[in-house]
Design brief:
Layout (H helix, E strand, L loop, with lengths): L7 E3 L2 E3 L5 E5 L6 E7 L3 H19 L3 H17 L2 H11 L3 H24 L6 E3 L13 E7 L3 E4 L13 H8 L4 E4 L5 H17 L7 E4 L5 H6 L5 E5 L2 H12 L7 E4 L5 E4 L1 H20 L11 E5 L2 H15 L9 H16 L3 E5 L11 E5 L1 H5 L3 H4 L6 E7 L2 H9 L4 E7 L2 H6 L3 H6 L2 E6 L38 E7 L20 E3 L2 E3 L4
Parallel strand pairs: 5-20, 7-8, 7-10, 8-9, 10-11, 12-13, 12-17, 13-16, 15-16, 17-18
Antiparallel strand pairs: 1-2, 3-4, 5-6, 6-19, 14-15, 20-21
Helix pairs in contact: 2-4, 2-6, 3-6, 4-5, 9-10
Length: about 525
């Protein structure tokens, strides 16, 4: 394993020009780990962005199979990271080794999945309308279209997934697959982890002959503004808080050349428990809900932060059993001290609200998070009370009991955009409450039935997105192969000579990709 230098990664080299040193911390004890990191200067941010821009032309023009080899090489390097690496990640995040080992597998599998996308070729969106010289009253010239990468992408990783949503995470994988070099802003919560993963990416780049500057990484607080405002950056991927995402969106919009920001931010992920399921398996639902709320100390963007049910003795019993399960949960160490402060602050805001009561949970004290259950007046949700729209990042959830179907509809209409919504129901419930689905389709990116939202499968069909404030752009996803679309744009080639066309658009179809030719799908030569 390489030494953790703590220097910035620029154009395949290490750079440490700044005087300020940052320290990685042990998430459990708060003590400084024996690694320090050099805060990037504005000049280094400029060099990193320019390095990405210099690499863009050569990188995007590589055959898709070459970029696929690069992603597969990254995956192989990640798989080779040993137990010493896992131990460092655990110390920085307080996450258990089994979780990190599983997340490493998820991260490398994600790279391999995007390699499959590149070899498949459908991401190119190739379309061909052949010339119609005899058409009346006017002939049509030959018109062809495909998608190319937008340019260098700035990526901001998340604290809660130090591998899968960080240095080599989904945004980085999608951008590289699209042919876009990356400038990654290392998360302050796991800088040693980021350093080691960045080294793995550069080893893969060297092994596969990628251009210098295809991947760059910078350390430091406050450098994000320089990065987002740099003219070389053409898109931004972000996973984090609503405050942070909104700030980046404003910066990007105020540039002389505005650019898109794909920010995944805040979601409370309502779980709607329907009457039939409640009557048949209420005890099991309470147990499963408690497990989902407390999984990973509640530090999932898909954590079920709200439980909604129709007023009944059964729903009251469910809340009682859920509360007992949460009362029995041991305290859990969060990712960092800042996360604990934010969690405690969120609990205090809930407790101070006149329309919200505390139902269960041990008193919050010390340096560990305690699971909590609250209950809010349904009218607060119907009236879109801001506090009920705010994610409390940790093992807490808020119950909302509605009087009838009309109040359930009003409550859901009061919700802002979400990543997920879950229906817990029997077949007869799902039939009787079928009207919920079109309503939820307008509110969320993923609708679950009889499952819990904390698992997010990496696959072609996954959507990890949703209307604001779940994300800044509901048209995309940050998990699954559709994530590549965020970093692509269409280019049209009109009346182009065959020899000058990109391979994906040539008559012979040398890449063998599926194309829309005169309105019909085909992978054959023309």
């Amino acid at each position: 394993m390489p030494e953790i230098l703590g220097h910035n990664f620029i154009a395949g080299q290490r750079s440490a020009l700044g005087p300020q040193r940052l320290h990685s911390l042990d998430a459990t004890s708060g003590e400084a780990l024996p690694y320090s990191f050099v805060q990037a200067t504005e000049g280094e941010i400029d060099r990193a962005a320019r390095a990405a821009a210099d690499a863009f032309s050569a990188f995007r023009q590589l055959p898709p199979a070459r970029r696929a080899e690069f992603l597969e090489a990254i995956a192989a390097e990640l798989d080779e990271l040993d137990d010493h690496f896992v131990a460092i990640v655990c110390r920085e995040t307080a996450l258990p080794a089994a979780r990190i080992q599983g997340e490493r597998g998820r991260t490398s599998s994600q790279m391999r999945l995007f390699a499959q996308v590149l070899r498949r070729g459908d991401y190119l969106g190739a379309r061909i309308d052949l010339a119609l010289p005899e058409r009346q009253p006017l002939p049509r010239v030959d018109i062809r279209q495909m998608r190319i990468g937008v340019g260098p992408v700035a990526v901001f990783g998340a604290s809660n997934f130090p591998l899968a949503f960080s240095t080599a995470g989904g945004d980085t994988a999608a951008a590289l697959a699209a042919g876009c070099p990356v400038v990654f802003k290392a998360h302050s919560g796991h800088m040693a982890t980021a350093d080691l993963v960045a080294c793995a990416i550069l080893r893969a780049a060297d092994r596969t002959g990628m251009p210098k500057g295809v991947f760059n990484m910078v350390f430091g607080g406050g450098v994000g503004e320089w990065l987002v405002k740099h003219p070389a950056i053409q898109a931004v991927g972000f996973t984090g808080s609503l405050t942070g995402g909104d700030a980046l969106c404003r910066m990007a919009a105020e540039r002389p050349q505005p650019i898109p920001v794909f920010a995944e931010m805040s979601s409370i992920n309502p779980v709607i428990v329907l009457p039939g399921a409640l009557a048949k398996r209420g005890e099991a639902i309470a147990r499963e809900l408690a497990g989902s709320v407390c999984l990973g100390a509640g530090q999932f963007c898909t954590n079920p932060g709200m439980v909604i049910g129709l007023q009944s003795p059964g729903f009251s019993q469910l809340l009682g059993e859920l509360g007992r399960h949460l009362d029995q949960q041991a305290g859990q160490t969060l990712l960092n001290a800042g996360g604990l402060r934010s969690y405690v602050g969120g609990l205090e805001h809930l407790q101070a609200h006149a329309g919200i009561q505390h139902l269960a949970g041990q008193p919050q004290q010390g340096d560990q998070a305690r699971a909590q259950l609250f209950k809010a007046d349904a009218r607060l949700l119907a009236e879109a009370d801001p506090l009920l729209q705010e994610e409390v990042f940790g093992p807490a959830t808020v119950a909302v009991e509605v009087a009838d179907e009309a109040q359930l509809r009003a409550a859901l209409l009061g919700l802002r955009g979400q990543l997920t919504a879950t229906l817990i129901g029997e077949p007869e419930d799902l039939e009787a409450f079928a009207w919920l689905v079109p309503l939820l389709e307008e509110k969320v990116g993923r609708i679950l039935v009889n499952g819990y939202p904390t698992g997010v499968e990496v696959c072609d069909a996954m959507v990890h997105g949703g209307p604001y404030p779940a994300t800044s752009d509901a048209r995309g996803t940050s998990v699954g192969t559709l994530a590549i679309d965020r970093f692509l744009r269409p280019v049209c080639y009109q009346n182009y000579p065959q020899a000058l066309l990109p391979e994906a658009l040539r008559d012979g179809n040398p890449l063998g990709v599926r194309r829309l030719v005169n309105g019909q799908w085909s992978d054959q030569a023309i």
